[in-house]
């Protein structure tokens, strides 16, 4: 017993091993890119090789391991790309802007599996493990797209739409924000996992479009933050009062 106690004291004195130490989540806004020193242009207008994808978006892991580019458009091969405020989505001639908070947002182009309706699809996965703050009740994030699943600690969470936020850009009008509940994991180390799925049609291939296939899509994720506010806003007092008065009126009418 004395030996065990001494060993615990030694661990405290020298620090726990790195794999037991939790750390804050990093790069939640995708604004701290990194790149190997031997790359002459850190963000070429095209995808990096897949072997250095995690250098470009530090903190996050991707599955399948993906190439990461800069202002890339029109790829449908399961890659990611950092976007800046000048990015234009030229696919299908849209020339559309995409939302960017800060310096960059992250665009996801899931691979387009041409599968029959109801068949299983394989998502593009973005994940990171870290400490969820003690007071956190929700994880809030900007998101454009569809077919998104969010898991916290391995548990899928309901995604709640929040009020749009002003963008200050007349071409975008507003930023779309969402939230998931993280309160059961507050003060714990847990994994965040985003799964993106696109069932759209890749018009750069030679296979003809089938009737059920929509256009392929880009998912955009940005500005992740933990908040002490709940994922589902609590009803305002006047809403509760109005509901109560309506109930009283309904009961009176029945009598």
Question: Topology of this protein?
Answer:
Elements (H helix, E strand, L loop, with lengths): L1 H13 L38 H4 L4 E3 L4 E3 L8 E5 L21 E5 L14 E8 L6 E7 L3 E5 L2 E3 L2 E2 L3 E2 L7 E2 L1 E5 L7 E8 L22 E9 L9 H18 L1
Biggest beta sheet summary: 7 strands, mixed
Mean pLDDT: 77
The helical percent reads: 10-25%
Count of domain modules: 1
Please work out how many helical segments DSSP would assign. 3
Per DSSP, what share of the residues sits in E-state strands of 2 or more residues? 25-35%
Radius of gyration: 23 Å
Distance between the termini: 74 Å
Structural class: alpha+beta
Q: How many E-type strands?
A: 14
Strand line-up across the major sheet: 2-3-4-14-6-12-9
> What series of H and E elements makes up the topology?
HHEEEEEEEEEEEEEEH
Envelope shape: globular
Enumerate the spans where pLDDT stays under 50 for 5 or more consecutive residues.
Answer: 10-20, 45-54
Task: Give a nutshell description of this structure.
This protein is of the alpha+beta class and 255 residues long. It contains three helices and 14 strands.
């Amino acid at each position: 017993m004395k030996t065990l106690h001494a060993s615990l004291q030694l661990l405290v004195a020298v620090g726990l091993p790195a794999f037991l130490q939790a750390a804050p989540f990093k790069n939640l806004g995708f604004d701290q890119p990194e790149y190997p020193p031997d790359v002459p242009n850190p963000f070429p207008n095209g995808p990096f090789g897949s072997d250095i994808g995690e250098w470009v978006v530090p903190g996050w892991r991707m599955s399948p391991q993906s190439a990461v580019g800069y202002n890339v458009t029109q790829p449908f091969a399961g890659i990611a790309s950092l976007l800046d405020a000048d990015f234009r989505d030229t696919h299908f001639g849209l020339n559309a802007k995409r939302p960017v908070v800060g310096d960059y947002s992250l665009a996801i182009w899931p691979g387009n599996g041409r599968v029959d309706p109801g068949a299983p699809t394989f998502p593009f996965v973005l994940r990171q493990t870290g400490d969820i703050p003690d007071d956190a009740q929700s994880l809030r994030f900007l998101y454009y797209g569809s077919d998104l699943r969010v898991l916290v600690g391995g548990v899928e969470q309901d995604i709640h739409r929040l009020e749009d936020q002003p963008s200050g850009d007349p071409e975008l009008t507003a930023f779309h924000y969402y939230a998931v509940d993280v309160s059961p994991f507050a003060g714990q180390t847990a994994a965040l996992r985003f799964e993106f799925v696109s069932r759209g049609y890749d018009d750069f291939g030679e296979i003809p479009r089938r009737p059920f296939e929509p256009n392929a899509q880009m998912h955009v994720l940005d500005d992740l933050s933990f908040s002490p506010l709940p994922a589902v806003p609590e009803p305002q007092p006047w809403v509760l009062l109005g509901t109560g008065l309506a109930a009283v009126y309904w009961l009176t009418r029945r009598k």
